[in-house]
Amino acid sequence: MNETLYEQDYYLWLEQTSNQLDEDRWNEIDIRNLVEEIKDMGRSERRSLESNLTIVLLHLLKYKYQPTHRSNSWLSSIIEHRLRIKKQLKESPSLKPYLEQIFEECYGEAVLRVGVETGLPFTTFPNQSPFTVEETLDIEYLPEAIAPDVV
């Protein structure tokens, strides 16, 4: 019955499972789906961290390599996604090593996106991030502009 409920009404399944846990009705809990949901929650947290980090790096690159196009929208996005990361790391400090592990991968994704968004050649951007993890997360850090003749 619980598996059918899980498939038919996810929200009701969540409420029922929560009540079963609160009331110590262990033998009624749909363990298989509960375990899968917990695994999915972990994957979702990691995907969210990757997405926010990539967006910060993307806008830092645009800010650095297109100084004549700087906008408050870019600054707002940098701040918003830094705050999201900060909140996520505060709630789940064990994600910090994962952030460091995926930093260069997210930078690579940011380079792909910034090349498309700006029209600048991909060779404009360094192979490794010009920003440290600390700079990327620092709410006050903004990169110096690259002179237009260098780009």
Topology:
Elements: H1 2-8, H2 10-22, H3 31-65, H4 72-91, H5 96-118, H6 133-137
Helix pairs in contact: 1-2, 3-4, 3-5
Task: Describe the structure in your own words.
The protein has a domain at 43-137. The mean pLDDT is 92. Helices cover 68% and strands 0% of the residues. Helix 1 crosses helix 2, helix 3 (31-65) runs antiparallel to helix 4 and helix 3 (31-65) crosses helix 5 (96-118). The protein contains six helices and no strands. The protein is mainly α.
Pick out its properties.
single chain, 151 residues, 6 helices, mainly alpha
Q: Nutshell version of this structure?
A:
With 151 residues, this protein is mainly α. The protein contains six helices and no strands.
Dominant shape: elongated
Straight-line N-to-C gap: 63 Å
**Structural category:** mainly alpha
User: How much β-strand is present in the residues?
Assistant: under 5%
The low-confidence runs, each spanning 5 or more residues with pLDDT under 50, are: none
- Report the mean per-residue pLDDT as an integer: 92
Helical element count? Answer: 6
SSE succession? HHHHHH
Report the sheet with the most strands, covering strand number, pairing sense and barrel closure: none
Instruction: Count the E strands.
Output: 0
What is the CA-atom radius of gyration, in angstroms?
A: 21 Å
Tell me the helix content.
Answer: 55-70%
